[in-house]
């Protein structure tokens, strides 16, 4: 039987190796329950949103934006890894904004993550909301977890272990 510290290390290593893969892409699309096809006004607002995020994010590594008026408003957020050059950030955001529309064809919203950046957009204001563990599991299930229930249990166990270590070993 593997000891708990080794188990913790192996699980952490396995999760990190999937994140380090330069070709990995993770995405999650919001369920289609509002729009079934985007209007030209919404498409224009979405393009303006991505342009704003691509322009402003490389300056600080993070930005949010809102474009349009109800019912065609769209909220967006973009971030880049802190240790990459602003040109690499811009390139990553360009790729992400192009792919998120292809990966999430219905305009309710979506999230896409690459190694160096991430983009999220939605018809709902998500700025004051933190993604839930359920959102994370939904994303993992979409990307092909072969045993989602077992994966969920491992992640919960890992998070509980990390929480205990952080809470009781603070310096």
Automatic annotation (TrEMBL):
Q: What is this protein called?
A: Cysteine-rich repeat secretory protein 38
Family stated for the protein in its record: Belongs to the cysteine-rich repeat secretory protein family.
RNA-binding among keywords? no
User: Which keywords does the record carry?
Assistant: Repeat, Secreted, Signal
Which CDD domains does the annotation name? Gnk2-like
Subcellular localization: Secreted
**Cellular component GO terms held in the UniProt record:** extracellular region
Please report the stretch or stretches of sequence annotated as the Gnk2-homologous domain.
23-126
What range does the record give for the signal peptide? 1-22
Q: Which Pfam families match?
A: Stress-antifung (PF01657)
């Amino acid at each position: 039987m593997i000891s708990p510290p080794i188990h913790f290390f192996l699980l952490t290593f396995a999760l990190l190796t999937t994140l380090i893969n330069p070709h990995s892409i993770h995405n999650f699309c919001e369920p289609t329950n509002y729009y079934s096809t985007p209007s030209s006004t919404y498409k224009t607002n979405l393009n303006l949103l991505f342009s704003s995020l691509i322009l402003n994010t490389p300056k600080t590594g993070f930005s949010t934006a809102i474009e349009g008026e109800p019912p065609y408003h769209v909220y967006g957020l973009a971030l880049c890894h802190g240790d990459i050059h602003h040109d690499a950030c811009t390139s990553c955001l360009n790729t992400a904004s192009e792919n998120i529309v292809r990966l999430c064809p219905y305009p309710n919203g979506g999230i896409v993550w690459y190694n160096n950046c991430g983009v999220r957009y939605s018809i709902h204001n998500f700025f004051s909301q933190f993604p839930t563990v359920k959102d994370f599991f939904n994303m993992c299930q979409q990307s092909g977890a072969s045993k989602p229930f077992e994966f969920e249990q491992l992640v919960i166990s890992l998070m509980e272990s990390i929480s205990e270590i952080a809470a009781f070993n603070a310096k």
